[in-house]
Amino acid sequence: MRxxxxxxxxxxxxxxxxxxxxxxxxxxxxxxLILLVSIAGMIAFLYSSSIDxxxxxxxxxxxxxxxxxxxxxxxxxxVYENAVGKxxxxxxxxxxxxxxxxxxxxxxxxxxxxxYSEFESSNSWQLFFNTTYFFDSVTLEFCDSKLCEIKRYRxxxxxx
Length: 160
Prior knowledge:
It is a single chain. By secondary structure, this protein is α+β, with helices and mostly antiparallel strands. 32% of the residues lie in helices and 28% in strands. The protein contains 4 helices and 8 strands, in the order αβββααββαβββ. The strands form 2 sheets. It has a 6-stranded antiparallel beta sheet with strand order 1-8-7-6-4-5. Strands 2-3 form a two-stranded antiparallel sheet. It is rod-shaped and about 95 Å long.
């Protein structure tokens, strides 16, 4: 069989309408399932990565309820490290809330440049951590110059 060539035959078949419809429905169902699983996964991620807690006794983030403002002020770097992590190189935005007016006062973003005199008359210190993916903050509330509440919020998205 020298020089014999193999014969190729190409057949073109038309898929009947019912089969085409079933195939299209299967593809749509698959994409719908993928979309549903993706949305459920995103909701689970948002829920599991969020923090919203309030501490009124004990200690958290390297500070203890009942400590004086001066003690808490000296431990602000520890609050940052315990809340965000030691290896993070992000800045901190601090807002101080005074009785009058109720507008926050912005303070330097470098913890090493802070002056206690700026903090002394405020009873609410809000630390916003500039992290890569989260809206992250710790609020320190003082009652009679002693720490009485620590609030921690962390969300992936900003909620209204």
